Amino acid sequence: MRVNGTDYRSIWDQDGQVKIIDQRWLPHEFRTVGIDSRDEFATAIRDMWVRGAPLIGVTAAYGIAREMGRDSSDAALQAAYETFDATRPTAINLRWALDRARAELMPLAPVDRAEAALALARRMADEDVECNRMIGVHGLELIREIAAKKPEGEPVRLLTHCNAGWLATVDWGTATSPMFHAKNAGIAVHVWVDETRPRNQGGLTAWELGAHGVPHTYITDNAGGHLMQEGMVDLVITGTDRTTAQGDVCNKIGTYLKALAAKDNGVPFYVGLPSSTIDWTVRDGLKEIPIEDRSGREVTHIQGTLEDGSIGCVRVTPEGTEGGNPAFDVTPARLITGLITEHGVCDASTEGLASLFPERSA
Ligand SMILES: CSC[C@@H](O)[C@@H](O)C(=O)COP(=O)(O)O
């Protein structure tokens, strides 16, 4: 996507270096940074310099590639796998990318691993871009159908939670891809952007949508239910960090409440995801998906632009108050209208997923 007139992906390699958009500073400042050592890659994922399920998977693949450039032994490959695997527990794309890298590299002679690992990381990045583009192509049809029933010029009003935008993937985003495609197709849309406390990923979504000229309004996390009751939301689209084989969706904390409100108000609730986010080994999301518990400081403190233009952090609670920070929740399949994947749109169910991915579901 374009930033200040230049096309960017969220991760790329250039002159032997892996570069990322350092998301700690957005939406206040756009900064890129090179990452190299195993510890830097692990820190970048754990501390959310990069974030979003698809992007952390590709970052880990690049991390393996850099490590193989230094030491391509079996032991180094396994150690890098374990280091990255321990960074964030919920998004399955991380494990998916690591499993794929280990399975491709282990059978090779160590001398061939560095080149193969870099080729694999690049391939994964390209595949992610294409998957997300296709999610946009399929999701666009849902928006088009709603637009066709509206009075001329009235926008389709979407709501999204967290940032499942291009910053959370390599490009396009999942939930945002249909929005960008709608904008490109000349369909009027307006997006309600959930703030998404505690880390305010909604600011990233607002930054992305603004840069692409998509009209949007930043709202508190608590406003969505009210807007749905008032008939001001036509469609909800979110992303996901792990979707089970029966269609349960784990995503950023608060997604479940949006799905409940959508169900109560008859608002269609869709989830955009590449198939790398489907965990075919689990069925019951509530019982089987580990929920990341992050630092309470992310809740008690908040970062923003200060009056003097610098980026600063303030405490919003009384000194000494502890913050609780479960980072994800699970929305049961019964609350989800459909899943938008690179293969098309399906029901959030075992049968729905099997219809699009027959080889995998078997
Ligand atoms: C396309 S990204 C899908 C999800 O990863 C996204 O909705 C999300 O929950 C990101 O959480 P984060 O904690 O910011 O990594």
From TrEMBL:
Marked site: Transition state stabilizer: 162
Amino acids binding substrate: 51-53, 88, 201, 251-252
The species this protein was found in: Thalassorhabdomicrobium marinisediminis
Catalytic activity: 5-(methylsulfanyl)-alpha-D-ribose 1-phosphate = 5-(methylsulfanyl)-D-ribulose 1-phosphate
Protein name from the UniProt record: Methylthioribose-1-phosphate isomerase
Gene designation per UniProt: mtnA
Domain of life assignment: Bacteria
Residue positions of the active site: 241 (proton donor)
Pathway recorded for this protein: Amino-acid biosynthesis; L-methionine biosynthesis via salvage pathway; L-methionine from S-methyl-5-thio-alpha-D-ribose 1-phosphate: step 1/6
Biological process per Gene Ontology, one example term: L-methionine salvage from methylthioadenosine
Classification via PANTHER family: METHYLTHIORIBOSE-1-PHOSPHATE ISOMERASE
InterPro entries linked: IF-2B-related (IPR000649), IF-M1Pi (IPR005251), IF_2B-like_C (IPR042529), Initiation_fac_2B_a/b/d (IPR011559), M1Pi_N (IPR027363), NagB/RpiA_transferase-like (IPR037171)
GO molecular function: S-methyl-5-thioribose-1-phosphate isomerase activity
